[in-house]
């Protein structure tokens, strides 16, 4: 079994995930787990054979998920055929995953949507038997994993084996405090703008590190995208195949370097700061914060070790795509307004591979475009980078906002 006796706290890196698979902590009955699905600090989870259309979302309570599916299931869709199945906008589905867990008592797990899933506005969360929360899997859990899937903007085509979510394993207390984050930033910058580390005095910390929006750039170029209504079918198994203009409208900045979000519309925007995750850390973007606005600003959250990292270039970093939805009223957001935050955890040890290294299939290292991997990217569609935003770089006096939660 994976050795937990060393007393180290932290997230398991890829070499430990490989041991966890070999020891049966993570398994897939009837088939091996592809090595390509092992990331520096997470494992891609695969869809199983069938999608259950359900009456409503649920937590199992004292029941198994299968018990709830028998109670709330409406019909089933076969995912094993060449064409898979189409999931309709606004309807909830539950899909048993191929992987299952046999966690030791000292090991817990957490799931999150993959970045490409969030950028397609597909809401997902993992459910476990008798689990009291979504995405958090208790230490010692033994059993199957299930994925709730709700397409929010586009109908989607999915197939058996498609990966929409990721799983992290951790032991002990891995979380960094705000003081820890400050020390890490002083040693190796976690945030930078235009290639220069953010002044430590300007870091905005509150149980994590806040990121702001980049809403400044040439007027005709756009600062992001807004999902179109009545869009065509999006095949999530194909990369670079879909015309973005059939699914998205460009978002242009308004006077004052701001935009007004329309209620219940989904936006893809870019962070003002570039993010660097060094090899000994892992990060997650918090789903919302109750001090930050009438928004939800995250649908996908893991940042693996190596994101934006360059050992030879201090303050390199990659900007982060921000998935934003206003709720009941139109809501104004401004350039550099903080709208989300990163939390950080220690790794048990650095991974033997880093995000963005050759052959790993990292899609968003050094990204300058918010659109996900499913869409064709044209040069004229790329929004401004922080280098386009050098003027007016004084510290933002942040307006305090109030988030509302879609879940969790």
From TrEMBL:
> EC number(s) of the enzyme?
3.5.4.13
Question: Which residue intervals make up region (Disordered)?
Answer: 378-408
Q: Domain named 2'-deoxycytidine 5'-triphosphate deaminase C-terminal: which ranges? A: 178-375
The record's listing under InterPro entries reads: DCD_C, DCD_N, dUTPase-like_sf
Q: What does the entry give for GO biological process?
A: 2'-deoxyribonucleotide metabolic process
Biased region (Basic and acidic residues) positions are 378-398
Q: Which Gene3D superfamilies match?
A: 2.70.40.10
- Provide this UniProt record's keywords sorted from A to Z: Hydrolase
The answer to whether the entry has keyword Transferase is no
Could you tell me which residue ranges the 2'-deoxycytidine 5'-triphosphate deaminase N-terminal domain spans? Answer: 9-172
Origin, by domain of life?
Bacteria
Q: Name one GO molecular function term.
A: dCTP deaminase activity
Protein name (Swiss-Prot/TrEMBL): dCTP deaminase
* Species of origin: Kribbella italica
Q: What is the lineage of its organism?
A: Bacteria, Bacillati, Actinomycetota, Actinomycetes, Propionibacteriales
